[in-house]
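Re: that backbone. Tokens:
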């Protein structure tokens, strides 16, 4: 099993945009959250996780799960840039937006883990399938390492779960960036549509 120090280094390498977070404590907690999420699974790098939105949806033909996180985080900032260019300051917390973008899929190592997938499929009646989705599990990871509640909120409600509540400002930007990411990748032919149904 990889040491936490190795996992932290792996996370820093996979997600260079972490360095855009000005607040040192927040930056370190983003690293800690991903290292902790990986440590519970057979993965030692975010790059090893299937590059798809869900375990059964089409993956990227080229690119990694890290590229997805980076793309969404950068797209959310770009969306904020475009709107603020026209409307002026909209009060978007850019540090928080980076953290929310990079952490929205914190629960994917757990949900995408081949070991967990096999365990759940063996007895869906007992476990449910999936037992806990990445969105919900991401809340557990975020709160365990002490990330702000707003980051846990984005992990838990960037997805369909967010339709039951009102999303925060930063989560709204991440939610649309995330959905746009997969739609655009499909349109430019970067998704392997032979796999999955999305
Ligand atoms: Fe995502």
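Recovered sequence:
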């Amino acid at each position: 099993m990889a040491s936490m120090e190795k996992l932290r280094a792996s996370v820093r390498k996979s997600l260079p945009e972490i360095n855009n977070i000005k607040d040192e404590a927040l930056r370190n907690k983003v690293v800690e959250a991903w290292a902790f999420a990986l440590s519970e699974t057979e993965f030692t790098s975010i790059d090893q996780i299937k590059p798809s939105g869900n375990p059964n949806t089409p993956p990227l033909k080229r690119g990694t799960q890290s590229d997805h996180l980076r793309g969404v985080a950068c797209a959310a900032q770009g969306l904020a840039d475009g709107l603020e260019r026209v409307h002026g300051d909209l009060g978007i917390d850019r540090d928080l937006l980076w953290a929310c973008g990079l952490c929205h899929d914190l629960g994917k190592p757990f949900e995408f883990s081949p070991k967990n997938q096999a365990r759940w499929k063996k007895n869906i009646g007992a476990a449910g399938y999936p037992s806990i989705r990445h969105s919900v599990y991401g809340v557990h990871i975020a709160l365990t390492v002490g990330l702000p509640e707003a980051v846990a909120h984005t992990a838990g409600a960037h997805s369909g779960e967010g339709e039951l509540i009102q999303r925060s400002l930063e989560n709204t930007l991440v939610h649309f960036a995330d959905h746009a990411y997969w739609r655009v990748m499909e349109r430019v032919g970067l998704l392997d549509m032979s796999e999955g149904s999305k």
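The two ends are 34 Å apart (CA to CA). The mean pLDDT is 97.
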